[in-house]
Known about the structure:
Elements: E1 14-23, E2 29-38, E3 50-54, H1 63-67, H2 70-79, E4 87-90, H3 106-131, E5 141-146, H4 148-159, E6 166-170, H5 181-184, H6 186-199, E7 208-214, H7 220-230, E8 248-253, H8 260-274
The structure holds 3-(4-hydroxy-3-methoxyphenyl)-2-propenoic acid.
Amino acid sequence: MELHQYHDVNQRGTVERITYFTTDEGGAPTEKYANVYLPYGYSNEKAFPVLYLIHGGGGNPDAWLDCSKIKNALDSSFAEERGAPFITVFPTFYNQAPVRTGRVDEAAERGHVLRFQQELRNDLIPAVDAAFSTQAAREARGIGGFSMGGVTTWFAFLENLDLFSVFLPLSGDCWQFGGLGGGKQTEKTVRYLYDRAVEQGFGKRDFRIFAGTGYEDIAYPNLNPQIEGMKAYPDLFEFSDDPGKGNLHYTVMENAPHMYEKVYQHIYHYLPYLF
Ligand code: FER
């Protein structure tokens, strides 16, 4: 899992912004932006996979880039040919920048990341596929996120499985049945994930989940039981320690609290297997 953070990277990707229109909670049109990382060598002559990477609670489209070495991890991985280059889109699930004082409002946050599923489908993905040279297919589209972004990722599995095949939930559990539901209502949550996939006609060869957290992470008590519960359904969630086999992967890091600076390393670790 060691990132060559001092590696001399001469092949750097660029970060652009895309603006797009979506609909706010009241149904009014609103303009938003996302950051778009284009790998070194990006060109209209090729079509690239796209990873959507979602910030945590209180964050914004800049959070991943400001708070972690994710760009360095992408640049160095592609320069070293650890994986085929892909585009990474950093959007936000908020319509208004949140003012965070004290404890997280679980119901409000859950509402934002659930509403964002429609924005992905109706507005953001079409805008990205129109503006950039993408493969524009679920096989070449992934979504991941940290904390509330991990919660967003599980909702994408439930609501947008026809759009994504790769899922990277990092230090965030599934909130279908309320805040911290992966820990508080593990059995019900796991069963729902299972049923939603099956009812939409998807089987275990149709998606891959690359989950991660840390032993010291506040989300560990919520994500860990959920992943352990999912292992009990190997006909749909086939766990393997080898990220190239099965479709459910889970890495728990040592000395890793709930921070972008830690969780981005999971993306580095899994990168060769994503697309
Ligand atoms: C979790 C998932 C999300 C969790 C916390 C969050 C404590 C979000 C926290 C925040 O936005 O502050 O499992 O565990």
